[in-house]
């Protein structure tokens, strides 16, 4: 019986020893937990550009009998969200509480996460997300906790690109007021990680009720939500069981905004020209009216 790893993250040297095809699939399975949980072997094979058999062999290379066992392992891990203090303790232990090592750890972890976005399957998911969001009359960006600041930032970028946008950044019952105006013609861009906490579950339920598309940006989320998203964009938050790093999420979001601008360049440029006019008026470079 192959060993069951604590997390499906073997050393890079072990992955490099695999065939190029299996190594590529293993890296995809490592970087896209939510997609793995939500998809069948055939669906994963289509996303990655390989065969069902290669998906199964990659799961076995990670130490599992097959894909179902890997799915169960990932789903069980999502049941308990990582404790931020424990994640920081593990990270500080790994870097031996040395400043230089901490800096190197952060840079290397961010590099790995961004490189995962450069994989063909991840780029395909970004393109699919842009196609899902482009027809929307308004894009609502959901993110609470640490993701709230990202939600507000992306809302600003979308507005500058000529898109109607609003942040859904309230937690608890205050979120109900923000959801009240959700309507047909909208689209949801959701930033959600870990367990299916109540706020994200309600956002998904309301979006399904009104039949608006959902783009989910995540590294791990239970199948009950991931399977209801129209598009799942994988964005790793650093290394497993270590402190969360949001660099890849930011890269994915900015890539989507730039893609939306490219999808309607006239709208984006007109909005930015108007922004410059308003800035000039506020700065007093034009004569006052009156």
TrEMBL record:
This is MurR/RpiR family transcriptional regulator. Residues 5-81 form the HTH rpiR-type domain. It comes from the Bacteria. It comes from Paeniroseomonas aquatica. Residues 129-266 form the SIS domain. PANTHER family: GLUCOKINASE, RPIR-FAMILY TRANSCRIPTIONAL REGULATOR. The keyword Transcription applies. The keyword DNA-binding applies. Keywords: DNA-binding, Transcription, Transcription regulation.
